[in-house]
Design goal:
mainly alpha, 2 strands
């Protein structure tokens, strides 16, 4: 299972808010809702997040094997 729990800590550390993602980087509220509820996002969105936050993928998501 993939979760985006690390994203919120990374955003806080980098000083980027969800409001900034919407207003400054044209993220949709739907995309942010998908992230908040650990639903699928595109690799393009993942790339955008890593670029905006200047971070590695591991700072955006974590993979935990299903039991």
């Amino acid at each position: 299972m993939i979760t985006y729990d690390p994203l919120w800590d990374t955003m806080k550390r980098k000083g980027i808010t969800t409001y900034a993602l919407i207003k400054n980087y044209s993220f949709s509220r739907g995309t942010l809702d998908s992230l908040k509820h650990n639903r699928n996002i595109s690799t393009a969105t993942l790339n955008d997040l890593c670029t905006i936050l200047s971070c590695k993928v591991e700072e955006v998501l974590v993979f935990t094997p299903d039991s």
